[in-house]
Amino acid sequence: MTWTIAVGVKQVPDADEVGIDPDTGRLDRASAPAVMNGPDRHALEAALTIRDQVGGEVIAMTMGPPNATSVLEEAVAMGSDDAVLISDRAFAGSDTWPTSLTLARAAEALEADVVVCGEETTDSSTGQVPPGIAAHNGWAQLTYAEAVDARPEEGRLAARRDVEGGYELVAAELPVVVAVAFGEFDPRPAPLHRKIYGENDFEPTVWDAEALGIEDEVGLDVSPTSVGRMETVDPVERKGEVVDEVDGLLEPIAEVRA
Amino acid sequence: MSDDAVDVGEYEDVWVFVEEHGGEVMPVSWELLAEAAKLTETTGDDLVALAIGEGLETVADEALARGADRVLVADDPVFEPYRADPYGEQFRAMVEERKPSIVLIGGTHTGRDFAGRVAVPAHAGLTADVTELDVDDEGILQARRPAFGGDVLATILCEEHRPQMATIRPGVFEAAAPDPERVADGDVVSVDVVVDEADAISEVLEREVGDTADITEAERIVAVGRGVEGDLEPARRLAEALDAELAASRAAVDEGWVDGARQVGQTGKTVRPDLYVAVGISGAIQHVEGMNKSGTVVAINDDPNAPIFEHADYGIVGDLFEVCPALADRLEGEPIQEVTG
Ligand SMILES: Cc1cc2nc3c(=O)[nH]c(=O)nc-3n(C[C@H](O)[C@H](O)[C@H](O)COP(=O)(O)OP(=O)(O)OC[C@H]3O[C@@H](n4cnc5c(N)ncnc54)[C@H](O)[C@@H]3O)c2cc1C
Fold first, then answer.
1. A234 touches B: beta carbon within 8 Å
2. Pocket test for ligand 1, best of B276, B301, B320, B323 (most atoms within 8 A of CB)
3. Which part of the chain is the Electron transfer flavoprotein alpha/beta-subunit N-terminal domain (chain A) (predicted)?
4. Minimal Cα distance from B320: which residue of A?
5. In this model, does residue A221 exceed pLDDT 60?
6. Do residues A149 and A42 make contact, with C-beta atoms less than 8 angstroms apart?
7. A253 belongs to a structural domain
8. pLDDT at residue number A235
9. A117 part of a folded domain
10. Does B39 share its domain with B137?
11. Distance in Å, CA B246 to ligand 1 centroid
């Protein structure tokens, strides 16, 4: 038996390319180029690792605007067999509740045995979507996964989980949602021929909310949370003094210890 | 207004999840209890602690001593060691039966793991990584979290759904000292265990927890980054000379040089020591978020353009393998050779 492995990927503003707005002196995210969420590359690598272990298919899925297709092309270049774009205006304003519902329904539609996600996204950093997918479907979950061990003979996937101050090895029944610890699973480079295929020939399957039967269960209206005030935080003032010799540090250290 | 919106008036009390593993309570639990006490002062609600595990008598008493009016206890071997599915199911059943207005959970790996298994089926609002909490006159939780790399503090609201849930970043709030006299006045309520081992969909095969150091209370910290290249000796010696705790960037933790309990930053701990010495740390925004409330910040880095210098009061541009021993020598009162950056 081989497994169907779905990978959730998201397009985010490139955190490394976020410039400073010359008028306000603050970070300007709107003009940053859109890229694949860094932790999702590690999720892709984990998915490909599982495929290497059991055989099967890796299918990347993203929920986003039509131009999010570029992250699917990247996923295909890295080695995904196929990819799905889940796109609909009805998704606008979704918080993590409908977002994880959407991905949960997509995973069901793909008949996924395993769903692999990044630990969190760099633009909203909640980490709530992977457990949310598992919860919507009543599936098992393995978050903060540092290593994976497919056990098709047991119908289970085992993972080494980082538990802050240690680790644990947990085996979970399929279907299972895995969230990969960001520092593990160094992504493999995409071979040139796959890059060319991804960019030129590959077309993702496209699903809207209706295709997943959730047109009344997404968007702002079903999102329990909303964003209220946004306050800019004044950066912490630091002296920013560079000293030439360690002796220059002795007085400030002595002051702190006094 | 959505179909699933609830009668918010039916929901009352503020719940705090007390996270324990094998009898050891994660410090963030007590931080939350102290902070939640401020909320109940405003709302007039009861402050309820909730513990899930096995053999929880001592933990329950400590929760009372630390400010809870009542402790709900789900005590059963099925909960030890922790697993997402039994915890989530038990917690959810308690929430649906007892209808709390606010539920606070520590933003540890465990808290972030199971919180969604409660919030999703309950269709509750769940705010992640909260660093400031408040409640308005109508009992609406004002859960504030850093957004856009800490440039902005966003207030997340949950107006029409209940409970209002949030995971809170460890180390941000101060824990209250226990008052043993409170124990006698509080109630410990044993709740029905709704989970059966036969229904579990996961199994813990091995579990090893070693270093559970609490760096959040440290007065002085020496933190190492990828720049130390696996050699902790210079930083250790400096930490000893300063009587400081050792901490680390995520890169140093991911490399396996330092244990995860000592990680500072967005996905680690928030620390606020009087002195923070960053050794071979570049100063990525996710790191800075966890240490920028520190008193005096010192950076040691051989790259003059490293962002950490913008977040430091004093910087030394130089090789950490020379600067750390030289500084330790001076702190230990020994004369040194000239070391410049
Ligand atoms: C979702 C997500 C969450 C994250 N959460 C966290 C978090 O909680 N905490 C965290 O720290 N990071 C976090 N990160 C990672 C963060 O983005 C950085 O990658 C990380 O902080 C870098 O660690 P570092 O500074 O130790 O390593 P590097 O960035 O590699 O920096 C090493 C530094 O050492 C200096 N150096 C090298 N050799 C020497 C020498 N001999 N002497 C002196 N200096 C030297 C270099 O100049 C460099 O500045 C997160 C990232 C993501 C995507």
1. no
2. B301
3. 24-216
4. A246
5. yes
6. no
7. no
8. 83
9. yes
10. yes
11. 16
Write down the pLDDT at residue A1.
Answer: 78
Asked whether residue A180 is assigned to any structural domain, the reply reads yes
The pLDDT assigned to A19 comes to 63
> Do B132 and B240 reside in the same domain of the chain?
no
Judge if B186 and B43 occupy the same domain: yes
Instruction: Identify whether the C-beta of residue A212 lies closer than 8 Å to the C-beta of residue A109.
Output: yes
B257 touches chain A (CB under 8 A): no
Note whether A228 contacts B296, CB cutoff 8 Å: no
The domain in which residue B179 lies consists of 8-199
Mean pLDDT of A159-182: 95
| Best A249, A251, A255 residue to mutate vs chain B (most B CBs within 10 Å) | A249
Interface check for B203 against chain A (CB to CB < 8 A): the answer is yes
**pLDDT for residue B1:** 43
Residue B128 to residue A127, Cβ atoms within 8 A: yes
Q: Does A203 touch chain B (CB under 8 A)?
A: no
Task: Report, in angstroms and rounded to the nearest whole number, the Rg of chain B calculated over CA atoms.
Answer: 22
Q: Please report, for the domain that includes residue A16, its CATH number.
A: 3.40.50.620
Residue of A nearest to B243 (CA): A257
Contacts of A100 in chain B (CB under 8 A): 116, 120
**Domain with B264 in it: what CATH number?**
3.40.50.1220
Residues A10, A36: contact at Cβ < 8 Å?
A: yes
Q: Is the pTM of this model over 0.95?
A: no
Edge-to-edge strand list for the sheet holding B125-130: B125-130, B164-168, B102-106, B14-18, B47-53, B70-75, B187-190
B43 domain-assigned: yes
Strand partners, A207: A86
Q: Is residue B159 part of a domain?
A: yes
pLDDT tens digits, A122-159: 988 999 999 999 999 999 999 999 999 999 999 999 99
- Beta-bridge partners for B134: B142
Torsion sign, CA atoms B253, B254, B259, B262: positive
User: What's the average model confidence in pLDDT over A169-194?
Assistant: 96
Return the pLDDT at A32: 82
pLDDT reported for residue B337: 52
Report how many domains make up chain A: 1
Domain that residue A83 falls in: 3-227
A204 domain-assigned: yes
Residue B146 belongs to a domain with what CATH number? 3.40.50.620
Name B19's Cβ contacts closer than 8 Å, sequence gap at least 6.
B25, B26, B28, B29, B105, B106, B108, B110, B111
Domain assignment of residue B205, yes or no:
no
Task: For residues A62-82, give the mean pLDDT.
Answer: 97
List, for chain B, all residue ranges whose pLDDT scores fall below the cut of 70. Answer: 1-5, 334-341
